[in-house]
Every structure is written in structure tokens, then in C-alpha cells.
Amino acid sequence: MIEMQKRHKCHGGSIGYYCHDSHETKTPMRFSLFEPPESQKTGLYVIFLSGLTCTEENFTAKANAYQKASALGLCILAADTSPRGETIPDVEAYDLGQGAGFYLDAVQKPWAENFRMESYLMQELLPLCEKNFDLNPEGKSITGHSMGGHGALTLYLKYPGRFRSCSAFAPITAPSQVPWGQKAFGAYLGDAPEEWQQHDATELVKKAKSTSENAPILIDQGLEDDFLAEQLKPEFFAKACEESGQALTLRYHEGYDHSYYFIQTFINDHLEWHYRALSRS
Amino acid sequence: MIEMQKRHKCHGGSIGYYCHDSHETKTPMRFSLFEPPESQKTGLYVIFLSGLTCTEENFTAKANAYQKASALGLCILAADTSPRGETIPDVEAYDLGQGAGFYLDAVQKPWAENFRMESYLMQELLPLCEKNFDLNPEGKSITGHSMGGHGALTLYLKYPGRFRSCSAFAPITAPSQVPWGQKAFGAYLGDAPEEWQQHDATELVKKAKSTSENAPILIDQGLEDDFLAEQLKPEFFAKACEESGQALTLRYHEGYDHSYYFIQTFINDHLEWHYRALSRS
Question: d(Cα B249, Cα A135) in Å, to the nearest integer?
């Protein structure tokens, strides 16, 4: 059961905020879905995964994506970043617990019960939306920002053929090697190096068998991003892509930081990138 | 002294958040300024005034204005909606006091000391910004949303020749005749019908002497706007414009509501509207 909470007409289409009870996270979960005007609808869609501290609303309100999505006839689905609620485990830190689900299934206590964002997205939210809205299961791509960029890259690599293309804004690309990732992986996955590798984009791309069949990945990264040197490490991912044969377009942008002002500047390029992949027959 | 609080590169230009101590409101006041890329700069600028409850950030983050502003070489200045602070008068209601300054100078206690938004904008903020940034004092236009649409219309009509053009999104056009306006005008101006008329766009346009010299005004209004029938009354303003010879383009849009999703859909039209007026020699 999907409950619509609010819906606004926007660029001829509509942006809706929705809530449903998730059996994976055992909580209510929210998402937003932009649908282009009826006359433009293609059924093709892009999933956007947000970064630390965000909800489904940050992208929806701030990314300026819907003018282009309307023109291209794309739907855009934006998910929340974790389960939430007073009874759900959390810590005070912004980079662990609620708002910081890292798009994986936790196996450690107290997280394992609810923090199942990978299964939530892949087994529940996407099928649910494909059933309830005009979304083509064969026509989806994935993108995201920061922690959500990590989510987009890892889900793309873990589920070959499921997404037609992948891109990311300032993604965490090698979580096993940076403080944000080490903290989250340690808490959610425990002291288990092999388990960590299953959720690390740089490790995944090294082992991927289907890289030659994958669409090229697009990554945009601002050079004034405060997190670039310590947390994001796109150069690690680029090296792994080169070694494994995964095509990658990595663009560095002078002056841009980690904010949604950076995302809104390049979102149209990403939507066009995905549209090209999605509309190829 | 203007203090920059943060600044982000955006669409090749930059969006800055600033703070300064206002002698009109006797408080720190914040604003945002988008500046296009150096190569695009014209010195021309548009002032945006927000609606009830907003700060300078709502427009800045949600209106999607900067791609077009960058392309046209326009700066955009977004102001706050009132003085703020623990020692500043306020009430619990969202439509009076902090966040609800109505862009006029209050004369009643306890508001008169700080709630001087008209003088703040006209005598302080605009001259300050024109002195400190590359803004052409002869090249500015004004727009706004809801209460800020009222602000844009009234300041345009009160200060002939000061703004090259005026537009509004879902403005309060006849505050003396609607609950929001009656409440605010009663509190800020007292029981003084003649005083009210000096701050009511519909009354001002009836008395304006220079309407034949004014640029046409553009108003966009959504037909699913919950406040349309009770608070906004664009038909009152349209009738007054017709009688006084003020050219007006009033567009009604099926399905659109009062939100920033409505504003983001039509902001490019407004920027192009102002750019045409501003770039006329």
C-alpha cells in the first residue's frame, strides 16, 4: 500500500511524495517520484540515491532535475537514506545509523534488524514502484551523490543487467579505505574484510566479470569538494576501472564543492547520459 | 560590512549567502546573491522577495533560477522576509511578525522599531549591494512570491523608475481586502484606511500617475493554489490595472499550486521577461 502524502504539478508533470510500510526495514519508508507529462512519458526511469543526512526531499527540492526529466520523458525516483523512527537504532553521529544506511544489508547488531537498504531497494521499492506506476522494469538507470554515489556504483556492479547505466556525483568510491566507509562497514558488517569487499565499488569493479558488457559509468567530481581527498578517492576507482576494463568518464570540475549547487549544475548531463543508454534498443 | 557566510560555485557563476548589520531593522540581516560567470556579467539584476515563513534560502535552494540567470548574465538578489532574533517582537502565528514583514515600514508598537522592511530594502540593502557587488543601479527589476509578490508589486508602484520591470508569482494583490493582509496591516499600520491604501497593490495601481510609462507587469498564478480564492485575488488587481492603464500579463496555469514547484516551472519565463526589459537601452 503506497500512500501519497503530497503531489505538486511541476514542469508539466508531477512530483509526488509517498510513504509505504516496508517489510525489509520494518518501518514506514518514504520516497518521491517525478512523472513527466502524459504526452512525454516513456516509462524509462532513473533512481537517485542521496548522501549522508539526506532524506528523499533533498534531491527532490534542490537538484533542479525536473525540467530536463520532463523534456526527456524520464521518471525520477528518489529514495530515503535509511530506516527512521524513535524505536530504530541510531547514534548521535551524522555518518552512522539513521540517515546513513549506505545502501547495504547490515549483519551486525543492533543494525541488522532494520538497516537492510540493499534488499529494500532491490527487492521491495523498485518492484513496488514498477507495479504501481508507469515504470518499465527493463528501462531503469541509477545515480546518486556521495554515500548515494557509492550506492549507485555498488548496486550497478552487484546486479549486472539490472540497470542500463550508472552515474554518480562525488561518490564515495572506496569505502574500505576511507573513514566514512570504515566506520559504517565496521558497524554494519563487522570485522570481516571479505564482506567489506562485497560492498566496495573499487573492489567490486576489480572482480566484475561483465565489465565489457557494462555501459560506461559517468562520475562528476568538484575540485573544491572538502571531502575529495579524505573520503571520496575517485582515483582509486578510476584505476580499478582501467584494470578491469570498465569504461569510465570521470570529470573533475574546478571550483565546485560537495553541495546540491554542484549537483544542479551537472544534473542535466547525467539525465541525458542515462536517457541515451535507456533509449538505445 | 557584509560578511560572506558561504559561497558555492553554481552553473559557472557563484551563489553566496551573506549577513550584514542593518541600521533600519537594528538586527543582522541575511541575503543571497547569485552572480553569473565573469564572462557573462552584465551588471543587470533581479530582486526576489519571498513569501510568508520563508528566509532568503527558500528561493535560493528551490527555485532553479540560476541556470537561466547564468545564461542571461543576470545577478539575482534574494532577501529575507523580516528582521529576526530572540529580542525581536514575534507572535506564534506564521502570518505575522518574524517571517512576515510584508515589505513595509510598521508604525505601530511593538513592530515599528524593527519591522522596517521597505526602508531596509530601498534605502539600505539595494544601495549596499550596488556598492559592494557588480550591480548596475540603473539595471534592476523586481519579482517575488505570495507576500513577496505583494512586495514586488507595491515597491514597483511606489518607486516609479526605480525598477525596470516587475513580475510576481501568486502574489497577494489586494491585502486590504483579504485575511492575511488585514491581519498584517492592522498590526503594523493600525486602524488607518488611508495608510493601508499606500501599501496595497490594487489601490496603488488605481492612483499611479505613471502607469503609461511603466513596463508591463507579469503575474503567474496556479489554479490549484489553495490560497487563490481567499488571499490572492489577482482579478482585483487585473481590474485596477485595466482601469488605470497599467499593462498586465496575467497567466493562469491549470494544476499548479502555491509551492516552489510552481515557481521553478515558470522562473525562466520571468527571468527572460526581466532580461528583455533590462537590456532595452
Answer: 38
Nearest CB partner across the interface for A61, out of B61, B224, B257: B61
Task: Give which of B7, B9, B15, B169 to mutate to test A binding, by max A Cβ within 10 Å.
Answer: B9
pLDDT digits (tens, 9 = 90+) for A124-139: 999 999 999 999 999 9
Residues in CB range of B99: below 8 A, 6 or more apart = B52, B53, B54, B55, B81, B82, B84
Give the SS3 label for residue A18.
strand
Quote the distance between the C-alpha of residue B64 and its chain's center. 17
Element (H, E) at A261: helix A260-279
Distance CA A60, CA B143 (A): 24
pLDDT over threshold 90, residue B10: yes
> What distance in Å separates the CA atoms of residue B63 and residue A267, rounded to the nearest whole number?
15
Burial (CB count <10 Å: 0-12, 13-18, 19+), residue B193 = exposed
pTM: 0.96
Q: Cell match 500500500: residue?
A: A1
ipTM of the complex: 0.95
How close A271 gets to chain B, by Cα (Å)?
A: 16
Count other Cβ atoms within 10 Å, centred on residue B7.
16
Residue with cell 505601530: B108
Instruction: Say how far apart CA B234 and CA B231 lie, in whole Å.
Output: 9
The pLDDT score that the predictor gives to residue B212 is 77
How far apart are alpha carbons A54 and A146 in whole angstroms?
A: 11
Average pLDDT, chain B: 97
Give CA angle at B142 (B140, B146), nearest 5°. 170
The answer to whether residue B258 is catalytic is: yes
Residues of A in Cβ contact (< 8 Å) with B225: none
Q: Do B10 and A67 touch (CB under 8 A)?
A: no
Q: Which of A5, A7, A10, A252 is best to mutate for the B interface (most B CBs within 10 A)?
A: A10
Cell triple for B99: 517571517
Q: Report chain A residues touching chain B, CB-CB < 8 A.
A: 8-12, 15, 61-62, 64, 66-67, 222, 224, 255-257, 259-262, 264-265
What average pLDDT score do residues A146-163 get?
97
Contact criterion met (CB < 8 Å) for B255 and A9: yes
Q: Read off the pLDDT of each residue in B87-101 and give the average, rounded to a whole number.
A: 96
Determine the Cα–Cα distance for residues B139 and A151; give it in Å rounded to an integer.
46
Contact B8 A262 (CB under 8 A): yes
Residues of A in contact with B67 (CB under 8 A): 64, 264-265
pLDDT given for residue A16 in this prediction: 98
pLDDT greater than 90 at residue B208: no
Q: Which residue of B has its CA nearest to A11?
A: B265
Contact yes or no for A143/A46 (Cβ under 8 A): yes
Residues of A in contact with B260 (CB under 8 A): 61
For residue B32, give the 3-state DSSP assignment.
Answer: strand
d(CA A192, CA B100) in angstroms, rounded, equals: 55
CA atoms within 13 A on the CB side of B22: 32
Contact B219, B150 (CB under 8 A): no
